[in-house]
Write a sequence for this structure.
């Protein structure tokens, strides 16, 4: 589930979101359209026609952040929750710039199954994942920025590999996978109310974390001064993701008025830090 307010390279961003989550094992998307450009609208209609996306209008006659918070975020979250109930085993409530990425398992269903073999998940109503900011102001990964492939250079989950070393605690910026039938009320960062007898499992960060790709959350560029680590876990999906996005782009290019190749808007980046606050967190295989 996500509210649609894309910007920048919207078409590529949308294809990356849909195709990477598809690789991660997601079968259906419920999207809430607040503002949407013609190219992205065309792309989504193709996914709608294939039964992969449900696209719902989300234009409220209220002033966001004055009369209601963030375009009616909590109404959208709970609409999605109850639409998913008894139709899907699990639902992830995330935004377009957020990806739940397993550290060892290949897909989210495999992760849930793996956790069930190691922890008691019988009463689990939601799986919480700690947030890691991959600030867009940090420089692109040199392995990707030097690639001649415009698709590889354009995908944010590949080119942005530096993240904050310290993860946010659960319930602060975290996101979750839930079992809809065990939830009464969904919140943004955690479930607000469960069916009695159910609760949250805080997933250990060595099993999976939330990759959150965005600019500094408080404005300016000071966030890049925080301790950081290079985390290439998402590169495990590099080959499959690039090929799937390339194939879908070529298939939709003429129909949706896309350029021959994706063009990513240039962004001023801050040099990656060096020294004691800069580490390499993990190097993953590519497949």
């Amino acid at each position: 589930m996500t509210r649609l307010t894309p910007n920048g390279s919207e078409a590529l961003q949308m294809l990356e979101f849909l195709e990477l989550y598809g690789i991660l094992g997601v079968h259906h998307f419920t999207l809430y359209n607040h503002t949407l450009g013609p190219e992205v609208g065309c792309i989504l209609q193709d996914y709608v026609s294939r039964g992969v996306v449900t696209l719902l209008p989300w234009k409220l006659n209220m002033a966001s952040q004055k009369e209601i918070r963030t375009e009616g975020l909590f109404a959208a979250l709970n609409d999605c929750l109850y639409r998913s109930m008894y139709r899907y085993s699990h639902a992830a409530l995330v935004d377009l710039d957020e990806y739940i990425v397993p550290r060892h398992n290949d897909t989210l269903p495999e992760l849930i199954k793996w956790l069930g073999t190691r922890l008691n998940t019988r009463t689990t109503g939601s799986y919480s994942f700690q947030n890691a900011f991959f600030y867009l102001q940090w420089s692109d990964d040199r392995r990707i920025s030097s690639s001649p492939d415009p698709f590889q250079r354009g995908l944010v989950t590949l080119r942005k590999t530096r993240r904050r070393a310290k993860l946010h605690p659960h319930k602060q910026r975290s996101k979750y996978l839930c079992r809809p039938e065990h939830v009464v009320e969904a919140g943004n960062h955690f479930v607000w109310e469960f069916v009695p007898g159910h609760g949250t499992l805080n997933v250990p960060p060595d099993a999976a974390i939330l990759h959150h790709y965005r600019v500094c959350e408080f404005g300016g560029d000071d966030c890049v001064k925080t301790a950081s680590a290079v985390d290439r876990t998402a590169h495990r999906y590099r080959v499959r993701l690039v090929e799937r996005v390339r194939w879908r782009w070529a298939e939709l290019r003429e129909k949706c008025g896309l350029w021959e190749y994706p063009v990513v808007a240039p962004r001023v980046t801050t040099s990656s830090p060096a020294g004691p606050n800069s580490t390499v967190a993990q190097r993953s295989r590519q497949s």
Q: What stands out?
A: The chain has one domain: 2-270. The radius of gyration is 19 Å. The first strand starts at residue 2 and ends at 4. Confidence is low (pLDDT under 50) at residues 281-287.
